[in-house]
Design a protein that fits this description.
This protein is α/β, with parallel strands linked by helices. It has a domain of 134 residues: Rossmann fold, CATH 3.40.50. 44% of the residues lie in helices and 21% in strands. It contains eight helices and nine strands. A five-stranded parallel β-sheet has the order 2-7-1-8-9, with helices on both faces. The longest helix is centred in the C-terminal third of the chain and has 16 residues. It is globular. 27% of the residues are buried.
């Protein structure tokens, strides 16, 4: 059985990453979503086991101690982590995974799983990104200021990603991500065993 392929999608806050990932999963039903663990509270409409696994801080720290996460970070006071077991299980079974992970976590994953495809989502412009962050009415000025500083830091991580998508139009951005996924599925290295069987 060939190993599964995984896509890691990152972006600064406000670039539309979650919307792109959601539509991508609708277009590609065989693509599985890697559900992260978090200590933050669910937002309206979010469901445990679908959007995130919502756990207490104590529960999360215990999992860190047991080495359950391939990566974990603290973001605005909340902890987020990607299950190592989930990744290994899906990939070993030949199932493809989509991960929605911020740059610090993505870099940690890249060190452990060398063969991933890393995609960075950008908004139409830096000015547009700043406007989107400032429009978040439910957050305090301090949080928005911190998000702006973090966005600037995350933009500097773009150099080591494999692909970049400008989210000027949501549907087009999703189609571009789908095109990347399809192209990567056709790589010779991915199809090595099938090619070998064909040649025999």
């Amino acid at each position: 059985m060939k190993q599964g392929l995984f896509l890691v999608v990152s972006a600064p806050s406000g670039a539309g990453k979650s919307s792109i990932c959601q539509k991508m999963l609708e277009l590609c039903p065989k693509l599985n979503f890697s559900i992260s663990y978090t200590t933050r509270s669910p937002r309206p409409g979010e469901k445990d086991g679908k959007d995130y696994y919502f756990v207490s801080r104590e529960n999360f720290i215990r999992r860190v101690g047991r080495g359950e996460f391939v990566e974990w970070v603290e973001n605005f006071g909340n902890l987020y982590g990607t299950s190592r077991k989930t990744m290994e299980k899906h990939l070993a079974k030949g199932k493809d995974l989509l991960l929605d992970v911020e740059p610090r976590g993505a870099k940690k994953i890249k060190k452990v799983f060398k063969k991933g495809i890393f995609v960075f989502i950008l908004p139409p412009s830096r000015a547009d990104l700043m406007k989107r962050l400032k429009r978040r009415g439910h957050e305090s000025k301090e949080v928005i200021k911190t998000r702006l500083a973090q966005a600037e830091s995350e933009l500097r991580e773009i150099s080591w990603y494999d692909y970049v998508i400008f989210n000027k139009d949501l549907d087009k951005a999703v189609e571009q991500l789908k095109a990347i996924y399809i192209a990567e599925k056709c790589r010779k290295a991915i199809l090595a065993r099938e090619i070998e069987a064909f040649m025999k």
